[in-house]
Structures
1.
Amino acid sequence: MSRFIISTADPNADPEDSVTVPLLSGLRSVPNSSSQVAIVGVNVCPIESLDYEIFENELFKQDWRSRGKLQIFQYTFMKWLLCFLIGLIVSLVGFCNNLAVENLAGMKFVVTSNMMLERRFGMAFLVFSMSNFVLTLFASIITAFIAPAASGSGIPEVKAYLNGVDAPGIFTLRTLVVKNDRDRRDLVTCGSAAGIAAAFRAPVGGVLFALEEMASWWRSALLWRSFFTTAVVALVLRAFIDLCLSGKCGLFGTGGLIMFDVYSESVSYHLEDVPPVLALGVIGGILGSLYNFLLEKVLRIYSLINEKSIGYKIFLACSISIFTSCLLFGLPWLATCRPCPADASEACPTIGRSGNYKKFQCPPGYYNDLASLIFNTNDDAIRNLFSKGTDNEFQHSSILIFFFTCFFLSIFSYGVVAPAGLFVPVIVTGASYGRFVGMLVGPHSNLNHGLYAVLGAASLLGGSMRMTVSLCVIILELTNNLLLLPLIMLVLLVSKTVADAFNGNIYDLIMKAKGFPYLETHAEPYMRQLSVGDVVTGPLQLFHGIEKVGNIVHVLRTTRHNGFPIIDEPPHSECPVLSGIILRAHLVTLLKKKAFLSTPDLTGGFNASKQFSAGDFAKRSSGNDEKIEDIDLSEEEMEMFIDLHPFTNASPYTVVETMSLAKALLLFREVGLRHLLVIPKISSRSPVVGILTRHDFMPEHILSLHPMLVRSRWKRLRFRFPALSKLF
Amino acid sequence: MSRFIISTADPNADPEDSVTVPLLSGLRSVPNSSSQVAIVGVNVCPIESLDYEIFENELFKQDWRSRGKLQIFQYTFMKWLLCFLIGLIVSLVGFCNNLAVENLAGMKFVVTSNMMLERRFGMAFLVFSMSNFVLTLFASIITAFIAPAASGSGIPEVKAYLNGVDAPGIFTLRTLVVKNDRDRRDLVTCGSAAGIAAAFRAPVGGVLFALEEMASWWRSALLWRSFFTTAVVALVLRAFIDLCLSGKCGLFGTGGLIMFDVYSESVSYHLEDVPPVLALGVIGGILGSLYNFLLEKVLRIYSLINEKSIGYKIFLACSISIFTSCLLFGLPWLATCRPCPADASEACPTIGRSGNYKKFQCPPGYYNDLASLIFNTNDDAIRNLFSKGTDNEFQHSSILIFFFTCFFLSIFSYGVVAPAGLFVPVIVTGASYGRFVGMLVGPHSNLNHGLYAVLGAASLLGGSMRMTVSLCVIILELTNNLLLLPLIMLVLLVSKTVADAFNGNIYDLIMKAKGFPYLETHAEPYMRQLSVGDVVTGPLQLFHGIEKVGNIVHVLRTTRHNGFPIIDEPPHSECPVLSGIILRAHLVTLLKKKAFLSTPDLTGGFNASKQFSAGDFAKRSSGNDEKIEDIDLSEEEMEMFIDLHPFTNASPYTVVETMSLAKALLLFREVGLRHLLVIPKISSRSPVVGILTRHDFMPEHILSLHPMLVRSRWKRLRFRFPALSKLF
């Protein structure tokens, strides 16, 4: 935690309060304090911003000029090598993960099914629920004790990081090779693209997901590098799958590059197929926004439980696990047994492996369609739902039960202290109701039920995650059916539009609930009515170009600011001159190295580049940075001076105080800043009147300064779920 | 042309010189004059920047506040409606275009082939060459007289426009509905996405192309809107194709949603297939960069011819047409006739329609494989090359001849005064050499020759256009083979990397040759060594908040600046105050409306919002703006005053003079600016020391100010084509 522990504004505040506040009302509205806390995993973390801006001071410029071609080549080569390694490692991890899931969960279902065949139902339930319980316990203990940030899907955390939010729990294992936040950001972007690419074997979809959903900044070089990374993933995965096709991967043996192949040459649709597809889109939009709404509420309740102690967390996870086991084991008994079709495409009932026709409790020659869905891994369930030529395989009631089970179980199991995704549950849920709609439309349609399931999955993804291009490509890469593209686009269009009328993207809701100070792309309308001068709050801390050591130590110890303007004032210059900005971390390094001058004039011939190298100022991994509290200085040293000029960034971004907040936000976000200097519009005053940070752009901060804006009519118009809101 | 005609720096300069200069040395290096010319089509156009920045003055703010919800809704609805219309119109145009090409060109080939069947070779040649000649003449006359900007592919022009470059020839038909450059930019982006979507029936590829290659700025809202537009395209096209499948579209009858379907379930490849694919990538990279190099040189020669007169232009186009006809008709005679295979998938020889086996001059039962490629439309030639199960259909020599023909013909026919694309010719060329490589590798590979052709097309596209994700998706959408994805990614990766070592992206080369002042994403390394103070050149023109009419008129008449800082100075204020910036167009409107004050003090109670509405300042379509020369003012009026405050943008973007040029460029480009105010670092001076525009960031301008940087070692390392360079 180290330097990141920041006292909240009121040190006597109820500790419980500080946890619940971000959940209930977003951020604390304390003017110009940097006290922001986020809930990462189930921990409360103080929040810092990241230094994405290139810091240009004399020392760094000299270092840069002195670099030879070889060093530049090495640097470039290193960046590409890291991308290659990320691609390689992520695809290995993804593959092993897939292999483990397919084999562990597959084995669990096979063993249970075999016991069911022998009609040892009690024993089967025990094996089923115990294996679930043990796996959950294992996962939640690891998560709770070792990597609390790993709970949940991780996507909101990465998204916040790429926006410039640094909650120290997010990346505990920061590589030491990368020296600055900017390079790290690029690698994290490539990594997130690679993650999606490996999880869904969708390399192009991975790049697009990183671009559309994750990244706050984008440049063409990054597109190129993340394409490289996912290409590595695609090639490595392809090689592994080649290996598996020869039957060496146990139950995973049939895994191809395309997960749910629904290609059928005969797919053709006409104008009359459009209305049911439109209906699917509308339903998907409503269900998706409802899903987001409920998930956020459940997360809020869970965080109340989780914050109590690790024991509570694990207890919660285990209870959910037992509840789930009972539900999953009990539900198939509701379904009536159906006779095996004569022309079944595979053995019926399916025994000893995953497949379409699970026997469960049924007599020989019969199968239980609900068990076929529930007693399979998620991947197999999706494959069942997407498959063509199976229009008569499922009953209406079974599909409906399965839909409700998935919908609510996935919401309730997300917030527990264990890593869990959103993508796959949403696809299963969407596929089941899509198939249900297909069954209702029945013979009036040219599309088979499997294709309806695909469109249903697309609509719920669109309604919950609100992406367009990347979802489109991911679905294409998952299902391998390009002919369906116009319909998928239509469904995504409709479901996103409908869902946007109710609430936001699921990842944004989770980020907000966790309290990350995320900078939105769009300025709120009231920001156009305010100027930056209206939100800057004092007092401004600044240093002189030649500053007394004691002053620096005092300011660093009493404030938590991370950037300080440097102003040269008389007598050192004729009139106030803005020299630039200096970072806290650099000041601490200077104090630690004790590069002091005995007098405030520069006759000593102080040479920065001789005493320091750029490496001295490279950012350490989080938690390893020096703290001001650790530096001991003698009384005599406190009276000495430091020449800050060589370490001052002479290229600070600035705005005039009359600049509208909306335009300042645009600059802040597009360029990726941490500090923005506010300069006066009148020449004669001090060259800097304030400093803007991420915090100053947060709606909560602005509204606390200007409460009359709260009720202004510029709020985004949205429908609410009024009845549901009362439940929570 | 109107206000866009800007005299070049030296009015006595040879007019020919002003045309050739941008081609030969990029831009003129005249310090701080806005005299930039571009060659759009074959016309020389003066260049302006676009006002993408939101202009925030009191009047607009008041107008914005007074808007009701209905108006905001109307505005939003209008934007979506326009996107819908763009999608609809583009898909209609694209479809009709396709229909016309397939039927016109198809008919030409069928008629010629029929004459060949009757062995009337002379007549066949006459029909063939005359129809080519007439079509070319028609196209070039239309282009030369009506829409000179339509020559070439149009993509470089749109790319420059989206970067903020406004050469008036680019969009002659500016819609009057859209009132500002910012909204227009969004629509142009959506339009370009729709264009690619319609041309290749690749809706997702279209969005990505617009994102990766065209757009200089991007926001998620734009992704969403362009996705909407291309979804409309996809649905409309799908409906038309449905119509055509019932056989109502003549020769176009078989056009499906996927243009070149190469789906084959049996596609499987292993490690031993990687080396030939890598080789394809390397060759594609070299050929692609060579293609770009040659195309640029040819464009340069053509522009020397084209600038002479319209007659020369049309003559050039017609000569190229005749030369092409002779070549295409003569070449198939070189190929030996091959006997029809016994198990041919279609009738051999193919008679009366396009197809795989053209008879040409061959005896019955034989076919001419080169004629099968040449005497088909481009689409059919690609389909032939991509087709599977045709590994024995082509001879090595025929494919090689076809490759060279395509490679050079497409280069020579691009620069003539007629609309021409680059995508399809590059695909044909790439497919032919890919197929050739496939034939060389032959039985040692698991991939059939058709798949090699696909990979070859990918490699040449990658080598010439240097896109990654969008090309990947476009190729997938064209060929419908997702299993090939890892190999396509590999090929694109290698070909782009190889080609980047030689030269730039083809569209960038064309833009440079045309003289567009395009702002690059990356700052040149020497920009990090310069501060903005080093490139700002005087004298700075500024106005006071209350300014004399005569002064304004004088400055507007004697300079061509488009933005003027407004400074309030004593006695109107105690010390100099930076009020903001005002645009030339707004000043002209004020002068025209004659909203003058008789005295320089504000006792008159001047009320801007009563006299003006925001609509008065909306940007007209180009050429319709008022000019300062058209405004007549009496001697008395010249002595009056204007209060500029309500029309001043109080939110100008600013940089300190010590800011490094690289960081200022980042701001300028990321935020999309036209003017950037430079403020002094010392408080006591005037609040503004200069103004930066696009021109000040152009390497040519900077290097003319600091010639010692030309030979600095920071230039990008690239291999050259030394021997070839001497040829031109």
2.
Amino acid sequence: MADLLSPEDRATQLPPLAETGWAAVPGRDAIRKIWKFRGFSEAWGFMSRAALAAERLNHHPEWRNVYNVVDVTLTTHDCRGLSRLDIDLARVMDRFAPEAEIQRDHGEPVTSLCQARTRQA
Amino acid sequence: MADLLSPEDRATQLPPLAETGWAAVPGRDAIRKIWKFRGFSEAWGFMSRAALAAERLNHHPEWRNVYNVVDVTLTTHDCRGLSRLDIDLARVMDRFAPEAEIQRDHGEPVTSLCQARTRQA
Amino acid sequence: MADLLSPEDRATQLPPLAETGWAAVPGRDAIRKIWKFRGFSEAWGFMSRAALAAERLNHHPEWRNVYNVVDVTLTTHDCRGLSRLDIDLARVMDRFAPEAEIQRDHGEPVTSLCQARTRQA
Amino acid sequence: MADLLSPEDRATQLPPLAETGWAAVPGRDAIRKIWKFRGFSEAWGFMSRAALAAERLNHHPEWRNVYNVVDVTLTTHDCRGLSRLDIDLARVMDRFAPEAEIQRDHGEPVTSLCQARTRQA
């Protein structure tokens, strides 16, 4: 059973993910990133590596693929929000596609996730 | 460039797909099916075979995966609606997972796709 | 670091694997099984699931694929012979393809692996 | 049914492949290349893209994987030797892994394939 990220961990770990293109999902304690690859083959190569990483962490993404686009949302169902597993999987995925185009016109700043949880704590 | 399915092809080819669990997507000329597998591994094995089939047909699904669930929507962007490619890809996907559970509580009967296109023709 | 299987574990765990088609590799402390699928797609679906399992165990096969044939050898390089990891991976792979044809005209009976290690012990 | 590569095609198309690391397999009309990746994940991402390309060409490799190493042999069984399909698949695979380390201590220069077939012609 994973624990929700503490306010301190959110403050230190979410902003670096925001720089690589992760944003907050409105209304959920979840982060999302959208990769645009050069075609289906490149998108699928990325997904194949991400599937291995997910299985290794025993933590799986919510993801959607349409041809060259891979749209990933991470959250931890066990604890109904972001946990260390989401941070780990996000970082691994970022390493697999350093050169892909990132779509940034969605969601809210990850700081919204830090603030919300800080108030609840 | 793929052609839209004719009313005659819709009438003969969509109902058999409906029996395997494909339904019409409200407001789109598209079909959708939701598979529930026994876990991520089985879902991923299915997706890996479907990816090969898609690449061979040069026709790709819109699909979403959350752990053991694979949610597939098929339409042909070139012709802004259903073409023979969607029928072919749907049939191939059906062959890959004959024993998976199918979620049937979504969408509309495929007959709505036959009627709509018949009226437009 | 994995430990070599004990003579007792070999005597109890290798024979059931032999029944599913695993055989001893002459001259190595390793087991091998050859699956024949109905085509590349089915072979690749199997390999995709096996890759996930391997990553989860952090233990990887030596494998070869030619169209519909997947030829797998398992051993543990760390301990230069069979370990519990090989048994685990063999069992998982067996579950992924219960209906595939198995080629049985290679190798030696797994009992050779029990005897050899018993003598060394 | 694919045709064997002509001597002219061999003379123009094999040498560029030799530069990227493809070599002749002794005793066969086949080419081979060995990639060394940084780990299984990277190797598997490469194989997943190559599987798509193979399925699209309807032409499949003989390949072997041990952790980070992918060892590929290409030939065309239909025509018992190298065809245009092997050149196409080799070029596509080369595009998928431009930065991987290539092991070059195997086989013979591809010029042996040009000479042999020139003499037979």
